[in-house]
Structure formats: structure tokens, C-alpha cells
Amino acid sequence: MREGLFIKKNKEHWEKIEHDRSANADETASNFTRLVNDLAYAKTFYPGSKITTYLNALASRIYLSIYQNRKDPENRLAAFVRRDLPLTIARRYKMLLFAFGVFVIFFSVGFFSAMQDKTFVRQVLGDGYVDMTEQNIAEGNPFDVYAQTSPFLMWIQIMLNNIIVCIMYFFRGVLLGIPSILALGRESIRIGAFEYMFYSHGLGADAVVTVLLHGLLELTAIIITCGAGLVMGTSWLFPGTRRRFKALQDGVKDGVKIVAALIPVFMVAAFIEGFVTRHYKMPLPMSLGILAACGAFIVWYFILYPFQVAAAERKRRAATYE
Question: Among its keywords, does the record have Transmembrane (predicted)?
């Protein structure tokens, strides 16, 4: 087709598209499809023509009107929390479960070692801390250590310390994950010895209820952080069908996702420790209510919800390929 005939045949339609700003979505999509076809034809047969330049500019304008100001159907942060992170947890659950197993084993080691060796608690926690705690127990305020600093200052200090320490635990995991697991083992032994210190004074249940007000979230975050370090460090050992470097990249990305998502958990745990735990003499139902809320969140978001999202994703993919 000669260029003049091509222009004459389509000119009216192009002008309508150019001047009509009230087209609905379906019309706009149809117009854009036709323009792209006309542009492809013009580039093929009239590559240096002004009509090719005109159609290219017109198609670009419509493209921008469709995509430039388009809002994402879901906020990126919301998508991360609702989909990306749960899928990552479900994909890496074996490593996180292994980290939990390490915690249980070494917590038991710390508890029963303190039971067998009366000096073990002091070796692990230090004489100063043990002497202070025993003095508080003798005075009838066994958990007064949580009330010796202003709530806000305590919140900030604990939050920053826990975040920094756990980021260090995570990045140490680059060495096959071994340093992360060793760090988790040491922390678990300390916690086991700490619990026995109160248990030996007949305050085991009180320690569980009081310390877990903030400790349930805090310990969960520490375990998952060290599990994320294991994910990163072992990813290149088990690359599957991927190249080892690509597997390492994926492991680092997944680990960073997990650790980044735990920062709010550390913030909330530190807030509870700074503002709530100091009131350890609160009515038992109130303490149990806080524990139940924290426990329900952990079980739902870190155990049940990831597998629900993963199952929905598998169904979606299966429907796509049918």
C-alpha cells in the first residue's frame, strides 16, 4: 500500500484518538492495539516517514496514559507482609524448624546443667547478675531488674541492642550457617540457666509468665533470625537445579527478607519489656492474655499462614497451566 493511501485510510481514526480524551478503558485499549499495529506497518514500509514519527508519538502518549499513573493493586509493603514473606517462610521452613530444634536442645542443656552443677548459673550469667537477682528474690521483688530503668529508655536500649545483635547473628551465617547456630546455642543455654535460677527458688512458673511477656516474641525472633542465617549459609550447598552462585543469591535474598520482617517484632518485644514486664505483679489473667495474644500471633503468622499462602499459590499456578 502506498503511503498516501495508508494515511487517507486511517487519518480520521488517528485524529479521533488524538483529540478524544474521554475514551473508556476498553476503548483506550482497543485504540492502543490498533495504533501499535499501524505503527508496526509504518515502520516496516515507511521507516523514515513523518507518519511513522507521528504514530510513534501518539502510541507513546496513550501508553503513558495507561501505565504511568496506574496505581498498584496492592501496596508493596502490604504485598510483602501478606504474600512475599509468608511464601519465603514456607519455602524455608525446614531450616527454621531446625533452628527451633537447636533452641529446644540447648535450652534443655542449660537448664539441666544448672540443675547438676550449682556453679553453672554463675558461669553463664555472671556473679553480678546472679547476686542482684538473689537479693531481689530475698526482698520479695524477684523481677525488679525490669523496673530499674525508665520505660522509654529501656525500650530504646533493648530494641537497638536486640536488632543489632540479631543482624550480626544473621550475617555470621554466611559461613555455612554454623556461627548463627552456635550463637543460638549459646543464647539457649543462657536462657535455660536463667530459668533454672528462678526454678531453684520455687519461682519457675512466675519466671515463665513474667519473662515470656516479652520473651515469647523476642525468642521467636532470635530463633528465626539464626534460622535465616542458616538459610543464607547453606543455600549454596544445596542448589538444586540452580547454579551455586544463583542459589547463594536466592538464599541471601530470602534471609534478608526474613530478618527485615523481624525488626517490628523486636520493636514490639522491647516495648513490652520496657513498659509492661515491669508490672509483673499485675493480675494473672492479664499476663496470660498478653501471652495468649503473642502466642496466637506467632502460631498464625509464622506457622499456619505461610502454608495457607503457599497452598493458594500452588492452586493459582495449577489453574494458570490448565
Answer: yes
